[in-house]
Amino acid sequence: MKRRIGIVGCGVIGSQLARSIQEEFAKKAKLVALCDLEEEKARQLSRRFSISPSICSINELIGKSDLIIESASANIAAEVAEECLKRGRDVLIMSSGGLFGREDILELAEQKNSHLYIPSGALAGLDGAKAAGLGKIFSVVLISRKPPRGLEGAPYILENKIDLFKIKEETTIFEGDVQQAEKAFPRNINIAAGISLALGSCDMTVRIITSPQFKTNSHQLILKGEFGELTVETNNLPSPDNPKTSYLAALSAVATLKDILGYVQVGT
Ligand SMILES: NC(=O)c1ccc[n+]([C@@H]2O[C@H](COP(=O)([O-])OP(=O)(O)OC[C@H]3O[C@@H](n4cnc5c(N)ncnc54)[C@H](O)[C@@H]3O)[C@@H](O)[C@H]2O)c1
């Protein structure tokens, strides 16, 4: 039987997943429902396919689907995950930052015998981090390098009246723990949330560096523990459809879906 899939959030990642379901995974899955705050985006996506997924509310979408994909916003990630799991549905969450501090949702998946999938997103190395987290971890540092325009509008930049476009050379804009980073740069927190979830709870130092010379977003994960040391750097190019989304994030969602629908799983 084909897995019935519903997608909440029809932007870059949702559209990439919808295309993959229709083109690569059509033998194993069927796109049955779409939902977006801007209904026209769901309609536009639906028009691309020969089948017509329902365009409906989140509540109705959960009712129609076996697997729900959230690719919308951190504001609704926890609520969507909770509702899906309560109703015995599997759920894939892209806005992992929205699950910060909600360990109860991880427990709910087990209680309800349903699956919660969290793709690696725009950062490589979570395979190693997951394995390393089974032993003792001594330190975790996440260094994100972004061009100034990638930090525009963040609460920390506004509150501290930082003029990003006056910065002429490589500058550390922020260093703090993960809770401080969540408040200061909420849009950039998916990566840190992914690491936290892979390791189980951990103390992490988050450093954000900017420079007008940076052309891409890059993330460096430095992990020390009983296993030894790990340093992974990911230099992300933007998605062809939207410069704000790293292409790797969209591809990582498709790779997770491939694992869910397939029989062979490679990597930790
Ligand atoms: N884990 C990672 O590394 C990673 C990387 C990139 C993006 N993300 C997250 O994935 C999500 C999707 O990213 P994207 O690049 O596709 O974004 P996008 O802006 O291209 O698309 C998001 C879509 O969701 C819709 N939406 C927003 N709030 C909604 C709501 N309450 N209900 C229904 N629809 C809603 C928007 O109208 C938009 O069409 C974002 O939350 C983003 O932060 C995670």
- The level-1 CATH class of the largest domain: Alpha Beta
What number is the mean pLDDT? 94
**Helicity range of the residues?**
25-40%
SS elements, strand count: 13
Q: How would you characterize the largest beta sheet?
A: 6 strands, parallel
Strand content: 25-35%
Low-confidence stretches: none
Radius of gyration from the alpha-carbon trace, in angstroms:
19 Å
**Helix run count:** 10
Strand order of the largest sheet: 3-2-1-4-5-6
**CATH architectural arrangement of the largest domain:** 3-Layer(aba) Sandwich
Structural class: alpha/beta
* The named CATH superfamily of the largest domain: NAD(P)-binding Rossmann-like Domain
User: Cα distance, first to last residue?
Assistant: 28 Å
Question: Layout of SSEs?
Answer:
Layout: E1 3-8, H1 12-23, E2 29-35, H2 39-47, E3 54-55, H3 58-64, E4 67-70, H4 74-86, E5 90-93, H5 103-111, E6 116-117, H6 126-132, E7 137-146, H7 155-159, E8 171-177, H8 178-184, H9 190-199, E9 205-210, E10 217-225, E11 228-236, E12 238-239, E13 242-246, H10 247-261
Parallel strand pairs: 1-2, 1-4, 2-3, 4-5, 5-6, 7-9
Antiparallel strand pairs: 7-10, 8-9, 10-11, 12-13
Helix pairs in contact: 1-10, 6-9
Bound molecules: nicotinamide-adenine-dinucleotide.
Nicotinamide-adenine-dinucleotide is lined by residues 8-14, 35-38, 41, 71-74, 76, 94-96, 121-122, 190-191, 194, 242, 245-246, 249.
